[in-house]
UniProtKB/TrEMBL annotation:
Residues 21-195 form the EngB-type G domain. Necessary for normal cell division and for the maintenance of normal septation. One of its GO terms (cellular component) is cytosol. Coiled coil: none annotated. One of its GO terms (biological process) is division septum assembly. Its cofactor is Mg(2+). This is Probable GTP-binding protein EngB. The gene is engB. Belongs to the TRAFAC class TrmE-Era-EngA-EngB-Septin-like GTPase superfamily. EngB GTPase family. GO terms for molecular function: GTP binding; metal ion binding. PROSITE patterns: G_ENGB. It comes from the Bacteria.
Length: 195
């Protein structure tokens, strides 16, 4: 099903989103965490999510349709030093609004570069997941950048730091470059999207 993903529409605000029905899984991560690469890898489409470095382009919420009742959502990331604080606050408001209001949203996939886990943005997402009791699945991306032992120990460390998270939480290693963790991520998405 994931391979059928096709671009549906972009939205800057909640009222520009597709009708709030069916099931949606949202992808979030700091800029450069590897979110676009992960989405492209998971859908086996090289250009679905633009792996563009241009700040500003990422400020839109992008919807990808899997079928009539299921969507993936690419949320705006932040973390570019270049982006002004006011602009950043604006993004955050749109993001907050989407996260708080969207009924179709059933799970959040959070991408974190395995070399830079649990930054401010990630903590915000975790906080929101806790408050909303929203299931969260963490991809520790670019796992190929570390030796397997080091990657595994970072995973365990982060896992133990999050062991008291009140909402359903799971985490795994992932690499868009060599495909590590694809199977696990597919399984989680399948579970959430009921396919
Ligand atoms: P985004 O800003 O979160 O969408 O990040 P991108 O997907 O555009 O990736 C940011 C940079 O990290 C790009 O140069 C990618 O080629 C690189 N990258 C993404 N995923 C991986 C990965 O799994 N392994 C490695 N080695 N590099 C990656």
């Amino acid at each position: 099903l994931l391979h059928q993903a096709s671009f549906l529409q972009s939205a800057q605000r909640l009222d520009q989103c597709p009708p709030d029905e069916g099931l949606e899984v949202a992808f979030a991560g700091r800029s450069n965490a590897g979110k676009s690469s992960a989405i492209n890898r998971l859908t086996s489409q090289r250009t679905l999510a633009r792996t563009s470095k241009t700040p500003g382009r990422t400020q839109l919420i992008n919807f990808f349709e899997l079928d009539e009742q299921r969507r993936l959502v690419d949320l705006p990331g932040y973390g570019y030093a270049k982006v002004a604080k006011t602009k950043r606050n604006e993004w955050q408001q749109h993001l907050d609004h989407y996260l708080a209001e969207r009924q179709a949203l059933i799970g959040l996939v959070l991408m974190m570069d395995i070399r830079h886990p649990l930054k401010e943005f990630d903590l915000l997402m975790l906080e929101w997941s806790a408050q909303a009791n929203m299931p969260i699945h963490i991809l520790m991306t670019k796992a190929d950048k570390l030796k397997f032992g080091a990657a595994k120990s970072t995973l365990l460390k982060v896992k133990s730091q999050l062991k008291n998270h009140p909402a359903p939480l799971s985490l795994q290693l992932f690499s868009a470059t060599n495909g590590t963790g694809c199977e696990d991520a597919w399984n989680k998405l399948g579970e959430w999207l009921q396919v």
